[in-house]
Design a protein that fits this description.
Layout lengths: L1 H16 L19 H8 L12 E4 L7 E3 L2 E8 L2 E2 L9 E8 L17 E3 L6 E4 L4 E10 L11 E9 L1
Parallel strand pairs: 2-9, 4-5
Antiparallel strand pairs: 1-3, 3-7, 5-6, 5-8, 8-9
Length: about 170
């Protein structure tokens, strides 16, 4: 029953977040409303994935691996060596965050990040979000991607495990 509630909550969260904007709002699909996620997959094959600058890395600003958090909790996403930009256009040295919840440690470079309850998109250049997860251990993976949601791969991914308590 808890899993069903979690799934329903995440789906509702995903649907509501598609219509929000702003730097610190919930996840969104993409800033360019004229192009949906599937269209971006087709376009992504036409443009090369921008290179990752030496020393660039993503990190959790406020969470550490193994930390215990009280639900709900805030996730602050950071990056060095690149800039955070909205989705829709590919710009060298920039991209936006995706948060993967209990879904692996990175997405292969060049692969479009899926759009589902496990993969949260922050296409309006958000760097912070609130999560409401079930109690227990969860793996959070921060994955940076270009303007077309194409993953920069393990070079720009970071995973931690948190224990959520009510």
């Amino acid at each position: 029953m808890r899993n069903l509630c979690l799934i329903a909550t995440l789906l509702l969260f995903g649907l509501m977040s598609c219509n929000q904007s702003g730097k610190n709002s919930a996840a969104t699909t993409d800033a360019d409303s004229t192009m949906n996620h599937h269209d971006m997959s087709a376009v992504s094959n036409q443009q090369p994935l921008p290179e990752v600058p030496d020393g660039a890395k993503v990190f959790f600003r406020n969470l550490k691996d193994g930390q215990t958090v009280t639900d709900p909790f805030t996730v602050e996403m950071g990056i060095t060596g690149m800039s955070v930009d909205s989705s829709g256009k590919v710009r060298p040295g920039s991209g936006h965050h995706h948060l993967i919840i209990d879904g692996g440690d990175s997405i292969p470079a060049g692969t479009v990040v899926p759009q589902d309850a496990t993969h949260l998109h922050f296409g309006n250049a958000q760097t912070e979000t609130k999560l409401d997860l079930t109690p227990g251990k969860h793996t959070l993976t921060l994955q940076f991607a270009d303007g077309l949601h194409r993953s920069y791969g393990s070079k720009l991914a970071a995973s931690i495990t948190v224990t959520v308590k009510k």
